[in-house]
Amino acid sequence: VAAPSLARDSGAEVYLKLENEAPTGSFKVRGAFNSLYRQCQRARPAGVVTSSTGNHGAAVAYAARTLGLPATVFLPQDPNPVKRARIAEFGAQIVGAGRDYEEAREHAAAHARERGCFFVEDGRDPDLTAGAATIGCEILEQLPATDVIYVPVGDTTLIRGVAFAAKHLNPRVRVVGVQAERAPAYYRSWQEGRVVTTDTCDTIADGLATRSPVEDNVRQLRELVAEMRLVSEEEMLRAIYRLLADEHTVAEPAGAAATAAFLQTGRAHAGERVVLLVTGANLTPEILPQAVRVG
Hints:
This protein has helices at 4-10, 28-42, 55-67, 81-89, 101-115, 126-142, 157-169, 185-192, 215-224, 233-247, 253-264, 287-294, and strands at 13-18, 48-51, 71-75, 93-96, 118-120, 148-152, 174-180, 227-231, 273-278. It is 48% helix and 15% strand. The strands form 2 sheets. A 5-stranded parallel sheet has the order 1-9-6-7-8, with helices on both faces. The protein has a 4-stranded parallel sheet with strand order 4-3-2-5, with helices on both faces.
């Protein structure tokens, strides 16, 4: 959809790709359905296990319920309560394990091995990436002359899928990745051309909270992505308010990250066609008043 206030202020032709309107409130449902459906074609599993900071877990729980599969979702301690509630709503068993996503993933992998379940591993499952790639297809089908696409970066499933599809359809399109300043592992890895881990990933944008990049993902980022940006916590809060007040759409911090990065240097895109991904709407109650204060 067109974003008139962002276009007016920047001189660019700006559009929002509203993945926050998808089932479960995020883009993750695309990859979850693709992965589980393809696994069922190969051999129907006894159950599904995954780890998540929230949106991926909700998507897997939703897809598993639709396909009639039992699901177990490992979450880090103190997860986003809105996302946790969504996972429970879709009938998955929830296990709290680990201080962050990386530690929750280790527990989930061990659990899946012990019980012979299908482990849906975000950031490593190619079927998840293929599901995310449909977003790139839709953008270029509707706006074939797109110049730039801004994409939030967590585990890189989204940006690798979007960039591969978009650049296949239009090799001239530039893809800009966006990470949180407080979770910059892939930003640093992209810059240095090697895996750079961080000790923590403490950000309000739980969807961007990764600290241990995957080597193949770093390589693909450097092949596909023209630029990587960092955004502050305050910039994401300001973007949440801007999207809500001026464009009438709800975004969680990770979902507003692309808009936050665009707002840093929007005038640099004057005369270009820009697409900003709004990737999730699962906003916690305490974030909204913070965004209003900052905005």
